[in-house]
Amino acid sequence: GSGTLEDPYVVDWAPGEAENPYNWSQLRRWILTYQLAFGTLCVSFASSAYTGGIEAMRHELHMSTVVSVLGVSLYVLGFGVGPLLLAPLSEVPINRVYSQRIVFLCTYLPFTLFHLGGALAQNATTLLVTRFLAGAFGSSPLTNAGGTITDIWHASERAIPQALYAVAPFCGPIIGPIVGGYVAEARGMGWRWTFWLMLIFASFAPVLLRRRARRLHAESGGTVHYISKFDQGRSLKLGAIMSVNLRRPFVLLFTEPIVFLFSAYIAIVYAILYALFAAFPIVFQQQRHFSTGEGGLAFLGIGAGIVIGTAINPFVMPRIYRNACEKSPDGKAPPEVRLITGCAGSVLAPVGMFWFAWTSYPSIHWIVPILAGAPFGLGMNWIFTSVTAYLMDTYTIYCASAIAASVLLRSTIAAVFPLFTPALFGTLGTQWALTVFAALSLLCAPLPFLFYKYGPRIRAAS
């Protein structure tokens, strides 16, 4: 550039520059990563902790079974609605007000306070409306955190941070019914305390280049113009930016095969998890006469699989990535390398579901179907972490919109599944109803393999 308004200087980072997020200290980046992961955990925890006291809640507020389950569905639906605005706002370059940090701060307080609606609700309407709003405002970590992790970690360092961020949406829903169940049945507490617990739990780089460009412009007395390298060829007018950014998640979802197919895959796996929140009480509490707290403990099998997957990822993925870098002519691993663990997960998830389906008879010892949750949880973990990493590597600074598109689809489908699960069990019986879920996960199993082989060709055409 020449420093004029029409041809501004292009701003990039100098090697080793301290302001570059990639050059921040390890401690600073890890603290930020843990904060993002914990925020995601809090939001997802609240989605299922609600189910711990659902029976007592249903009787006190005079709700039908379907209406009471709406508390889960509307919260998860909020996950899909919120990112349509929050993810594009995190990509607005014109002012730091729209940065990812400000989006987190401005949405997390309402998310926390809307739990009061459940704790103090005197009718079903108040409960359900505040659940939806809590889900919508709490959705920002589910999408924007992925963009932040991409901005502060090099691709070669990203495996562990990505795993921590990606596992939180699944750990939270597993912990929720266990804690919520025991809180709801504890003497002197009851179902309202599950909401107080949610309240307590919740309360507990491109942006910097744009700031630098504005600062350099100001230091020149306004006579020399600069632009971030990410904004070359783009309009910086707010109206144009918002128009493009608000449309981007939909454009990616419906025009990018990578985003659509993997979003559909994650949506089905995620929906199966939320359908199990309606299925486990049938299998373990109605048929095996577990208490509410014991019914929550049945999720430990899935939780164990998630923990195992999280523990293995830091040892496996960095090694795979380094080997791919060494074999690559340009020293950079292709995004498809991220899908290797997803290929293994796509096999494990349906194995776990078929195992659970046909060992759920009351005559079979209760530990057998609980153990079936381990391969499902492990497979689900690896599918989610690998696909999220693949989207981050493929769409880089627009990964927040790509992940928002994924969250929209998965949250919409996951919101519906718990509503028809009881009817499905009543019509088909426990074993065949669970087999339907297993077959859905099996139907999607080839996707990671296909994209691992044909992904470069598909990306080149996108």
Number of helices: 20
What would CATH call the homologous superfamily? MFS general substrate transporter like domains
Low-confidence stretches: 93-98, 205-210, 219-236
What summary fits the major beta sheet? Answer: 2 strands, parallel
CATH class: Mainly Alpha
* Protein structure class: mainly alpha
DSSP strand tally: 2
Number of domain modules:
1
Principal-axis shape: globular
Tell me the β content: under 5%
Helical amount: over 70%
Oligomer kind: single chain
Radius of gyration, rounded?
23 Å
Query: Please, what is the average pLDDT?
Result: 78
CATH topology: Growth Hormone, Chain: A
Task: Record the strand order, biggest sheet.
Answer: 1-2
Span from first to last CA? 29 Å
H-E order: EHHHHHHHHHHHEHHHHHHHHH
Task: Please outline the helices and strands.
Blueprint: E1 9-11, H1 26-49, H2 54-60, H3 65-81, H4 83-89, H5 100-113, H6 115-120, H7 124-137, H8 140-152, H9 159-185, H10 192-203, H11 206-219, E2 226-228, H12 238-255, H13 257-286, H14 292-297, H15 300-327, H16 340-357, H17 367-395, H18 399-428, H19 430-444, H20 446-461
Parallel strand pairs: 1-2
Helix pairs in contact: 1-8, 1-9, 1-10, 2-3, 3-7, 3-18, 4-12, 4-18, 5-7, 5-8, 5-10, 8-9, 8-18, 9-10, 9-15, 9-17, 12-13, 12-18, 13-17, 13-18, 13-19, 13-20, 15-17, 16-17, 16-19, 16-20, 17-18, 18-19
Organism: Botryobasidium botryosum (strain FD-172 SS1)
Main location: membrane
Protein name: Major facilitator superfamily (MFS) profile domain-containing protein
